[in-house]
Amino acid sequence: MKITLGTVTHPGGSRVNKTGSWRTAGKPHFLHQRCIACDLCALSCPEGCIFGTGQKTYYANEDYCKGCGICANVCPVEDIEMVSEEDEHG
Amino acid sequence: MMKEIRIHARAGQGAITTATILANAAFEDGKYALSFPTFGAARMGAPMNAFVRIGDNPIRVRSQIYKPDYVLVQDPTLLRGFDVVAGLKPGGLAVINHSKPASELGLVTGGWVLTVPASRIAREIMGRADRVNTALIGAFIAATGELSLEALEKAIYTRFSGKAAEDNWKALVEAYNEVKNRGN
Amino acid sequence: MVKGRMLQGARAMAEMVALCRPKVISAYPITPQTLIVEELSQIVADGDLEAEFINVEGEHSAASVCLGACAAGARVFTCSSSQGILLMSEVIFNISGMRLPVVMICVNRSVSAPLNIWNDQQDSMILRDSGWIQLYAENNQETCDLLLQAYRIAEDHRVMLPVMVCADGYVLPHAYEIVDLPDQEKADAFLPFYEPIYKLDVENPSTMGAYADPEKYMETRYMIQETLKKSIPIVEEVARDFSNTFARPSYGLFENYHVDDSSTVVVALGSMAGTIKDAIDELRTEGEKVGLLRMICYRPFPKEALYEALRNAVNIVVIEKDISLGASGAVATDMRAIFQGRDASPRISGFVIGLGGRDVTIDDIKLAIKKAQQQFEDADFIGLKEELELEGIDA
Fold first, then answer.
1. C206 — phi, psi (to 5°)?
2. Which of residues 16-35 of A touch B (CB under 8 A)?
3. HSE of B31, CA atoms in CB hemisphere, 13 A
4. Mean confidence (pLDDT) of chain B
5. Are B55 and B3 in contact (CB under 8 A)?
6. CA distance readout (Å), C89 to B105, C93, C107, C132
């Protein structure tokens, strides 16, 4: 990593901080069954870390997802569910 | 003889309380103790550490703990991306809040790893799965005997009052018995 | 059973301040000082201390309130850190210039930019030239012990100067450890009521800190300089009285830890001294003749006592959490000066450590000692991260 004069930073500089490590209450699981590509999940994501290019293509970048659950909450077709991660690592 | 404990948690999960209860109990047991936190991002959910040193003499060293005798992990999701057992002394012990047996966690360490379903115990007794500190302490004491139950009871009733104290004490005893009854 | 109570440092300090019975407290919250003034405002709100807790809009005002209240004859307390100390600095000089015995805790924290809330000692070091007495504490017990002594020293009619007790931020106020506080009766016996020499009084009007033209100003500075020199034995005297009263050692100017039989002596201030003592114990079991002179009273700078304590050392290793940017560490520079024109001429190396909260480990201390034993170091930074690329520095 580089330390600039006066610790000047530029937009996007916080990408190195993988704040997904703060996630505790589960993460979104995109079922890819009823997705209508309304884009609400991506638009509502406070981290801007949900991406998709059409029906059943949406996913969250787990390096930054903090597991807030807003995407699952706003999905009009209930195609996202929050899942516990405890079983995954170990 | 000084024992060093490193606690892994997330800001807001009560690691400072865990450390304080341990330090208070050590004090009740007639020992010297020092506990202190480190803060990173200082935001709820950000990973942080708290440290406890317990000894027969006044504690002087104030650096963070890199070669702990014991590690306590309050949140199973910290196993994602953090080497929680880093520097654990050979023969040392890591107590992890996890529903799976230690053998399934794949941790590489020269010490021992013990898991306890502290979230489950906390949920059953306090209705909140995140109040894991006292259950974790119960498992730790069952496995190590570092502090007396009498001292811990006093420390818990110093830190909490009323139903919170009763529930936290209940959680500690349940985790203590759970580990004791495993018989190894 | 160990004597005392298991307390968070901030709580212990707040209780000790209350035992000193200040009449006016004014402070503005800043990390990591906040815990102390929160506890204090609670103590006042609960009616456990009869004092005015005056909320203000910034540290300049907090210090000004204390200045005014002290000028009116009240014992006062304030507390700050980092940028708060800098914002206060104008008033800090006024307080000493007006010879007001204000006592404050500087909860040591780095200064911006870049923003950093963690511990080092750059903030109080900047004010070493302000005419305040500065006392640096190793642990929470000592912070409390020094607070009680600070009022005694400040209000001594032979002194009448403010005292800043310096406690390393986070490392002390946020730590839980055993602290033994005196009861009110004993504290009162050690610290009698404050009797000002001059005070603002509507019946008997006066002006303080008045204008001094070139015919007078220089003398005011000479008076402070001479008074600070004369306060060195008073600091010792108060520490002796404290030790006798409370049956607990208080070291006065500095603590001598295996200095006398050591060829290499570390000089340091504040909380890292504990870590240094453990490092020294390890080195001594390996047969090394290493000691620590832990400076408590940095201003006034006790030159004679330091020279006497260190005259037989071969290597002096100053390890400090500050840097006079463009020169050397402040403490190293001062230490070098006391050997000028004297018989003894030890090698005095300087090391900068723990800036902005970087952890100070036993290994770091051993590395500094080893480097100093090999060759002279002016202001060597210990613990820099080699993996970082530094714009304008690295090729």
1. -155, 165
2. 18, 21-24
3. 22
4. 94
5. yes
6. 54, 6, 15, 11
Asked if the C-beta of B42 comes within 8 angstroms of chain C's C-beta atoms, the answer is: yes
pLDDT bin (cut points 50, 70, 90) of residue B183 is low
Task: Say what the pLDDT of residue B129 is.
Answer: 85
Alpha-helical runs (H) found in B1-148: 15-28, 118-126, 133-144
Decide if pLDDT at B42 tops 80.
no
Rounded-to-integer distance, Cα C367 and Cα C372, Å? 9
Task: Spell out which residues of chain C touch residue A1, defining contact as CB-CB under 8 Å.
Answer: 387-389
**Taking the model in full, what pTM does it have?**
0.94
SS3 assignment, position C297: strand
Which chain A residues touch C390 with a CB distance below 8 Å?
Answer: 2-3
Q: For residues C174 and C9, is the Cβ–Cβ distance under 8 A?
A: yes
First to last CA, chain B: 26
Asked if B165 and B157 count as a contact pair (C-beta separation under 8 A), the reply is yes
- Tokens 């020169």 sit at which residue? C327
Say if the Cβ atoms of C389 and A1 lie within 8 Å.
yes
Asked whether C173 and C29 are in contact (CB, 8 A), the reply is: no
Q: Kindly report the three-state secondary structure assignment for every residue of C33-49.
A: CHHHHHHHHHHHHCCCC
> Which chain A residue has the Cα nearest residue B115?
A90
What are the domain boundaries of chain A?
A: 34-76
Give the 3-state secondary structure of residue C119: coil
Residue B74 main-chain phi, psi, to 5 deg: -85, -20
Binning pLDDT at 50, 70 and 90, where does residue A22 land? Answer: confident
Q: In the CATH hierarchy, which top-level class contains the domain C5-244?
A: alpha beta
Q: For chain B, how big is the Rg over CA atoms in Å? A: 15
C276-298 pLDDT, tens digit per residue, is 999 999 999 999 999 999 999 99
Exposed/middle/buried for residue C148 (C-beta within 10 Å: 0-12, 13-18, 19+): buried
8 Å CB contact between A72 and A28: yes
Cα(A52)–Cα(A31) distance, integer angstroms = 13
The answer for residues whose C-beta is within 8 angstroms of residue A56's C-beta and 6 or more apart is A32, A33, A35, A37
Cβ-Cβ contacts under 8 Å, C113 against chain A: 6-7
Q: What is the CATH number of domain A34-76?
A: 3.30.70.20
Q: Where are the domains of chain B?
A: 2-180
Whether the per-residue pLDDT at A90 is higher than 60: the answer is no
DSSP state, residue B76: G
| DSSP 8-state class, residue C158 | T
User: Is C287 part of the contact surface with chain A (CB cutoff 8 Å)?
Assistant: no
Contact yes or no for A86 and B77 at CB 8 A: yes
The CATH-assigned architecture of domain B2-180 is 3-Layer(aba) Sandwich (3.40)
- Give pLDDT tens digits for B95-142: 999 999 999 999 999 999 999 999 999 999 999 888 999 999 999 999
Distance between CA atoms of residues C22 and C187, nearest Å:
13
d(CA C299, CA C283): 30
Residue with tokens 């139950």: B149
Residue C178: its chain B contacts at CB < 8 A?
27, 32-33, 58
Which residue is it, tokens 């723990």?
C354
Q: Which CATH class is domain C255-381?
A: alpha beta
The pLDDT, as a whole number, for residue B21 is 97
Residue C98 to residue C90: CA distance in whole angstroms: 13
Of the partner residues C8, C174, C278, the one whose CB lies closest to the CB of residue B61? C278
